[in-house]
Amino acid sequence: MREQRRRLPIGVQSFVSLRKGNFVYVDKTRYIYELAYGSKQYFLSRPRRFGKSLFLSTLKAYWEGKKELFAGLEIVELEQGNEEAWQPYPVFYFDFNGQNYQEELALDDVLDKMLGRWEEEYDCKKDGSISYRFQNLLMAAKAKTGRECVVLVDEYDKPLLEVLGNAALEEHNKAVFKGFFSNLKSYDEYLRFVFITGVTKFSKVSIFSDLNQLDDISLSERFADICGITEAELERGFEPEIEILSESLELGRAECLLELRKMYDGYHFHPKGKGVYNPFSLLRALAEGEMESYWFATGTPAFLVHRLKSMHFDVRQLAEGRIEAASSSITDYRADNPDPIPMLYQTGYLTIFGYDRKSRLYTLGFPNEEVKYGFLESLFPEYAPESTPGSGKDIISLRRRILEGDTEGMRDILTALFDSIPYTTDDAPFEHYFQSVIYIVFTLLGQYAECEVHSSRGRADCIVSTEKFVYIFEFKVDKSAKEALDQIEEKGYAAPFAADERKLFKIGVSFDSKERSLAQWESE
Fold this sequence. Notes:
This protein is 42% helix and 16% strand. It has 524 residues and is α/β, with parallel strands linked by helices. The protein is elongated.
């Protein structure tokens, strides 16, 4: 009989529930110790479902003095001999998750209810504005307990992100936050510790322009893996689950780890910081015994992909890690900023690949295959809305023809695909459009395709390899397909496959920019 599987904390956001429920826990408590004895007020930005709420809940339990929940964890050893440790402080935990902020005064109502509960606990009058009530609460809590207060704010930006596009609500919620959170600066003497989390950092919201004392650790090397799971934590803490997943997928342990790494690893929040796995997808894969796009399926970046297409963005830069951005542009967000890169980074669709100190620019790209293929699959219908499964103009149909060695079928699918694309006067020049569509199509073929493959004499536009066939593609715009075919020969793109036993196809394709269609196709 197989040993009962351990409980993995998928979706568990309460540290109390996690510990009492005997869930597997990746010990991050050393960071709590560093934060508690470092600065005083912090901000952390991380993508959704990355463990921010669980970390904040762990902070809450620590400041409430619930030492019993931390048995066997690193912080107990770090606090050993400290007489001040594990003393309970008054904790105010503002959780902005799970609320609908689309209605008028919704944010005010949420804050009113939160403050009301604490006002009863600390014998505080419910009088005046929300900001004034918070001031009285901080003073009353310190007077009653003799200790300064701890303020924890989870997903502060949710009331702002949900109302983007509604100018009146957006300005109202910003004004509420301005008055409410300004207390964190003016009433500093009543505070012991402050920690605020969110996905984005709104540069024009007074919570940050006024609270210049907040220590933003979002791009700190020390705290690069404060959320997420590192390679070492995976191998050290999930050995039974790795073994079960390996058996389920019929892979060796090393091969299984490699596939997990390609699918879910790759997030870097500092150029020299430890890389981390997406914790939500990793835990789901270990629990389900399958490697699927779990995180991506929980939220599609519809408005981001629409913006990329409308601004004629070169999508090849995303997949190849060629996006450059200044630190200020990836840490701050402005709703009126036409540049989608800050939001793409902060929401987890891009991550840090490197940093140039001279130019002070970060290099960004897709972190892993889950994000890369999920994002391009979401982007593809923006360019080719009729390429739905079963239409005969879709990736699945093209993949089938490629596996069968059917070059005529491949030609027919690509011809029909381009013929079906609606063009408007707002569209980019055809060459950009064709490059984007071809790049997305062949990238979505996954393990079969490599785009712009370099050789000693140049680079082929695309090489597709299967178990039985190799296809070398060269694409031209307003030139003949024969010219494309001749370039394959002249540049020696086929030379690396001279000893290959698979059947080799050289394919030249010509597109007509005036007709905006696939005009010629020659293969040999």
